[in-house]
User: What shape does this take?
Amino acid sequence: MGELPKEVRDRIRASALWLVTGVLTIGALLLLYTVFIGFDRLRDAPVSRVAPMGEGGTDLVVEYIGGSDGCGDPYQVAVEEQDGDEVVLLAEVIVREATRHDKACPDVGVRMIDTVRLSEPLGDRTVRDASRLDAEVEVVENVAALVGQE
Assistant: This one.
């Protein structure tokens, strides 16, 4: 197998340079987008209290602490029922444009409420918050007490 002709080598070299230039350009554009426009980021939110709701008690109203507009918008509350004696909740919020260089969120917690469905009634099971190292969450007797109308 002999050496490639000069014209073929030049074309390969030019193609490789175009490829490197394209990759570097895409990387630079991605960096600029990240800094000046920003990507959204998920953040765990602490669960403060819960209340059973409904006929069978399989619905659970969850109170958690998010943030002000754009700094902790509601995303989801995930529930995991473990070994029949514990319910673990993980609330998540979205921080909009979190990677933006001039993005500053006020340190203000906003109370948020969401509902999750359990596979069986809460009963005497312990409720824990996954975002606070499985800290125990207060269970209030009803939704009216949770929202402060009692």
